[in-house]
Design a protein that fits this description.
It is a single chain. The chain is of the alpha+beta class and about 80 residues long. It is built from 4 helices and 3 strands. A hairpin with a 2-residue loop joins strand 2 and strand 3. Helix 1 crosses helix 2. The longest helix has 10 residues. The relative contact order is 0.16.
Length: about 80
């Protein structure tokens, strides 16, 4: 799948295919579809394909940031 080369802006957003999103996150496409279906990742149906705005993906990535102290339950076992 191809990625538009224009910068992501409200007028000209950069659209990513599910495969592109999966590769960027290091997961399989099925995981991306699951994230879209459960509402954790915003996506759009354009014609017969599903696309994700790069700005929405960046927001999702930011929401996944681990804060110091969040993993204490894994360390104190």
């Amino acid at each position: 799948m191809t990625v538009e080369t224009m910068s992501d802006s409200p007028v000209n957003p950069t659209w990513l295919g599910v495969g592109d999103v999966a590769a960027r996150l290091g997961v399989v496409s099925k995981t991306v579809y699951r994230m879209i279906d459960n509402g954790s990742l915003t996506a759009y149906r354009i014609g017969r394909v599903i696309r994700v705005k790069e700005s929405d993906l960046l927001s999702y990535e930011d929401s996944c940031q681990i804060q110091p102290g969040d993993l204490t339950h894994l360390i104190e076992g």
